[in-house]
What we know:
By secondary structure, the chain is of the alpha/beta class. The chain has helices at 3-7, 46-64, 80-89, 93-110, 126-138, 168-174, 198-202, 218-229, 244-259, 290-295, 300-308, 320-342, 354-370, 375-395, 401-418, 420-428, 432-450, 454-466, 484-488; strands spanning 11-14, 19-22, 31-35, 69-73, 142-144, 150-152, 190-195, 214-216, 234-240, 264-270, 274-275, 278-279, 317-318, 469-474, 477-482.
Amino acid sequence: MNVAERSTNLCLYNTLSRRVEPFRPIDPDRVGIYGCGPTLYGPAHIGNFRTFLFYDLLHRYLSWKGFRVHFVMNLTDVDDKTIRAARAAGLSLREYTAPYLEAVMDEAELLGVRPFSAYPRATEYIEPMIELVQRLLERGLAYSTPDGSVFFDISEFPDYGRLSGRDLDEARQSERVVEDDYGKDDARDFAVWKGAKEEDEAVGAAWDAPWGRGRPGWHLECSVMALSEVGETLDLHLGGEDLIFPHHEDEIAQSEGVTSRTFARCWVHAKHLRVDGRKMSKSLGNILTVRDLLEEGISPATVRHQLLSAQYRTELNFTREGLEASAKAIQRLLALDDRLRSHPVAQDAPGTDLPDICAQATETFQSAMDEDLNVSSAIAALFGFLNKVNSALDAAPRVLQSERAEAVAVLDSLDQVLGFLEVGRRSREVDSELREWVEGRIEARARARADRNWAAADAIREELANRGITLEDGPAGTRWTSDSASVDTPRAQG
RNA sequence: GGCGCCGUGGCCAAGUGGUAAGGCAGAGGACUGCAAAUCCUCCAUCCCCGGUUCGAAUCCGGGCGGCGCCUCCA
């Protein structure tokens, strides 16, 4: 399949139109995407990572289809929360956010999130932010207040509310009375620039601007980073569903306010996940972080699988049972990968169904993914492949080299998108010292088995099992894996 | 109150008009020194009530239940 054929057919749900529609980038050769990234005020939780893994899946899939993707994810390192937290910790903004930045990048890497094209940080875009505010002021779309703040004037932007589909007049009436100390004209106007307060200065979050010293509003950050890093019109703008209003609505107002062009052609939002059927929240005390899970011994591939197993627009329910299922699914994939690569080949082996199985898997996988990233169906296609390949290998002691190579290639190809093997293999890596020891024990066991000394053989199996090593006796001898089971399958928790 | 989503087997989850993918768990069988892995077989009529249709999990109406957003939470 060539790139042109691959490029067509992908459909995505556009929040703006509330419909699933064909993905049509302005320039098919270079897709420009901006995804809202984490705010560095604390450890990222699995909900954040569900969204980031959705980004990753889309990123990988577009690349797989042959698009050249320019994918930017920002890092918010200045906002109300980071300032408040830095202040409480007695640190500068920079000092406070640094460890969270490092953590989120590390965890993303562990989970197999491929590097994006750029990771702009808000504090590095202060100059262009000031310029954008200046232009909004010049255009009469924003006004400044005596304390040095600047607000966007919603009444000047008729399209306001289109993304989130809300009626402004009603919004006005039901508007919560928030006594904001920045003093705006209309409750619905939002801050593009916030006049410096004492706590801002304390943590180094204040910059000089023509209308007064202060710091950027949250929405402004994203507008500026997106416009600077991707361009005036994005092919896709991504985020968690909670960002639709007001964050993305405000981004649109500011961006289109200065460019007079469509800011993003398509908006795609990931649904929030639930934990054990409930919303993840501080008050319920059920916030899980990737670090928590990994420290429990759950493998990164398992977490990846669980977080990707449902389509991005469904309310994924994250459970212990689900993690166990994911762990087993990963193990089966790794087992298939090993088996396929090492299956005996022969020049004169009879042909098998493998070529058909391969073709069908790729096609089914692709049409599932094309349908608004229906990853559940796509994974089903992968498991259909797994099942049929295992059957075919059971039936054929030897296969043609070319057929085996094709099947390996398909497995690798699908994994370019899903990344389960990619991440799963890492957990199996062991150091050479362990490898040597294990292989020595296996030899000893082989001698015991040759002597039909089953007790001794089983003792060695047991010995290895205690070290997390699983043995599999097959026609070609004994194979072993550093058992991700002990790592992968958590004990049922009470 | 406004806008929106969802309710499929023990659990997770596809399927949006033609008679229920896949994963986990469970049962039986093959293979195995024992295992593991693998394979085979079995295991749901889709929250409830009406309606439309030759035909509905899938469309419409009404219930019941769960959930999200509504100013800074991905």
